[in-house]
Fold each of these.
Amino acid sequence: MAGQSRRPRSGSHLIRRGEIYYYRRVVPQDARAAFGKSEVVVCLRTASEAEAKRLEKQHDVDFERRLKRVRDDANPDTRRARLAVDIIEASPLNPTGQMALAYLPAEDREAVRALVSPHYAALDAHRNEIARLLHEIQQVLPRVPLGPEIWQRCRDGIVSVVRQHVASATGDPPPPPVVDGIYTLEWAFSRWLRTRSGERTEESVDTGRRHFDAFIAYSKLVMLDQVRRSHVLAWRDHLVGSGEYRPNSINQRLQLVGAILRVGWRDAEIPEQNLKGIILPNPDDNDRGAWSREQILKVLRALEPNTWASWVYLIGLTTGVRIGEPMAARVGWFDPKTGMIEVNNRKFTKAKKLHCMPLLPCLLGPLTTYIEGRSPDEYLFTDAPRPASPKLRASHEASKWFGRFFHKHEIGRVFHELRDTWIEAAKHSTVEKDIWEIISGHSGATVSDRYGGKKPDVLCKSNETICEFITGDAEIMVEVKRLVGTGVPASSEPERHAFLAAGLAA
């Protein structure tokens, strides 16, 4: 009937009287004295249910806040803590805020005083330290009048140093580096970014930033000329003592931080600290070496023909290349005429120089067929896994894939040890060291050409000589031809043995 209240829906605090909505909330028994009523009823002045629901939420928030305050006030500890916060918030920098204590009930006054007094005592100590610092700066400054430009330079330098120290102490983001004679660690990092500008990947910049920040946080240094060899050594020992990092990981951090510091010292004309001999010996290196013939065969037999993984494994095995280069390669980087995959972008090589992968004749024809009809800008191996983040290296997902693959097939090796395998073969071959170092990427480029001073045909012939440990093994070559699609895949073990026998006979 019109004019009568309607019962609220379950869970709702709305009622209707006629066409108008009201907010109704029953006050709990323990809070009724403070509220001065047993229920709260508010006219919402609307006939719209949607609008009433919106207003209901606001009134719920107000009611719960008021109820919490009432209950807190019933507890002496929470009431006094709230009163202390109210006083400090009203007068955070003015000790006269304590005058508000005089207006508190007598039973709360001393307890609240004990809560607010430490804040104002710390504030007084802080002001005393600032006054002391200003006095010390005043004593350092010259007694004679200075020109406006000199004053501005002094002011900029002092403020810059203070900002850097405060950021380091509080963990706040560092301010922009000031370069007018103020050589901070942040300035050193900015100079390092300028070197090889455009050649560094986002990942390498992020890694440098992360490791340099970790060094700053540990050393608590601000100025570049404060850094001593002992600081870097102490950081190294801290990393070792944490037990979180392997030697290679620690050495990467030391090398990056050392490179940043050296750039800063050089550009600031500050005497360079001797950072030699801080790199850790890596016991893991003792276990690295060439793959055995049985391990190579085991992987070749497990790989699927004409997949990115089979091609990348074969290229790594027969050229000693790092995995990142074939993973980054585009179709246009492969030149069937020279027989090479040419890495013509420096950012994809570890040493930031041009490099090439001379292919064996048994791979040259199949790879030409593999890329037939494809765009030069496509990845050479389009079916390979790629990292979703552009900050990660092209080899990131592929390296993890091979790790899982080797583990599945119980092979205790890593992909990079294919490089050790090839280099071991190169050392025992008749090929001169300067040539096989060009192929492996260890030598520097010369003005003779883009790949270390030797022509493509010389490099290809030399690689054929080095890879005789592959091409001279009939059983391995049977598996190689199967993987690149020039052999006959065996669907059963007897057929496989027959196929192998034919290969051995040939």
Amino acid sequence: MSANVARIAARMAKLDASGIRKVFDLAAKMTDPINLSIGQPDFDVPAPVKAQAIAAIQSGFNKYTVTQGAAGLREAIAAACADEFGWTDGRPYLVTSGVSGALVLAYLVLVEPGDEVILLDPYFVMYEHLANLCGGKTVPVDTYPDFSPDPARIEAAITDRTRMLVVNSPCNPSGRVYGDDVLAAIADVAARHDLLVISDEIYNLFCYDQPFASLASHCDNTLLMRSFSKSYAMTGWRLGWCTGPAAIIEKMTMLQQYSFVCAPSVAQAAGVAAMQCDMSAQRDAYRHKRDMVYDALAEPFGLIKPGGAFYAFVPAPEGETGTEFVERAIAANVLIIPGNVFSRRDTHFRISYATSDEKLARGLDILAGLAR
């Protein structure tokens, strides 16, 4: 193979998977590990959703849809937003290949070399790598120790190169849920600086101690992103949606035409059925798992109680980095993720409690034992 054929674009050097790769290299040596690392539901797709997908396949709904998404699904999303937000302004909706697909489109449309993207640290790993891929710069705003964002810190991070702020509530990796008052204060900052905000609300159905609140209720200049992946266990179906300023959605739709083309047609048909499903039983089950995690890890680790999603971001024992503790946990056959994958700090580790109660209990016993 010639050197020219093998040459990799320089932009790929800006992506770094080393943190996660190191964990899974260690995990490859494990036998039947207690896996508390995977960020996907352990329940199955609801039966009505499966039935609708099968019906769609059998009826021949297997071809491309229009790029912006099938009309039936976009109408269902618009109706849901009218109920939640009171929106009846005919705003555009774009059906995407998950929130990940929406994020890729948004970053490519919005971020140019040298632009700054403000992230609330800790943050979902994709936010930083997409900025790097676009030649942008991430500006982390520290939210430790309780993972509640300080609007004054966000405002202090804004410069003339700031392009947007990314907000994720309920948050991966911390499980923090932002209250309506905090979101209103962030919206005030955004309004003063004419700042675009991406609101990643992929875990909106998983709030345990307070009602879910959306930044889009307070800030018109918001790209709202939601997904069917976590809410309905449709992670492999690759289905999400986005709405926001019409000019941005128009360009994202154009870019989707030349990249993803459209979200999977069968998943779109099933998405309409998913939106009619009651997921309260699954939410209650995860509240119970969250309580198991907190009861087991609050005292030995000083864990702050997470309020949503299905993650806990746990401080490593005193005198030990997150990476060092993860290595000990993996040696004890428990797979978790070091916090520096999601943060500029290496002081915590992330666990996912999206697993069986029995397996979770065994893993928590081991982790608590390692702390003591």
Amino acid sequence: MSLLLWLLAFIGDFVALGSQVQDLVRAFEGRYRAAHVLEARFLERYSESGHLLRTESGTAYFRRPWKMRLEYEAPEKNLFLVDGKTAWFYVPEDHTVTRVPAKQSADWRTPLALLAGEMKLSRICARVELADETKPELDGDVVLSCRLKGSDTKPVQGVGREAGRSSKDIVILEVNEATGVLVRVVVPESGGVGIEFKFNDWRFDPPVPDSFFRFEVPPGVAIVNSELPSESKSIK
């Protein structure tokens, strides 16, 4: 094959690849933008240097504009709630609730916040590409890498097409190609630490009242005005 034909074939493959990513992003955004309220079961896993440290599970709720409720059910009951202005992390066993302005909560910079907002990956992603080196966990899924806006360029052994950038600046999204449904979110952090969310049993526009996204401080519970603990519900 001549060099010209090889270049034309390469460009054609590149254009087709870009079109596939764009189509998947549109399907993903459109699937969730059509609903005002979202509900799903989730599994959250924390790992360090490839070793699983902790697993939690529960039910997640998202309501536009900018409201989110994560009910942790196992191994213990906790609540992370964003009411649009304030983020609350309530630990019933400790009789304490941590309160922080929502814009200062690190969770508000991740794709989780997108589910309660405008559902535009361009809000947080400088670029979205196929994560070729990350295998999907389910057949029919496609894995995307989102390079976060404002990320640095520290050299690292990369993730997918993002080799040469800091892994903590890349968020991995696994999406079902046929339905656009979000299956998994992986947020790598510096020092080999990572947080992963898996979702299933999505419900669109379930009957959830507005009061579900307001936090009422129970009697006898102490309020701590502080940033959320980095190893609990904070995702940077």
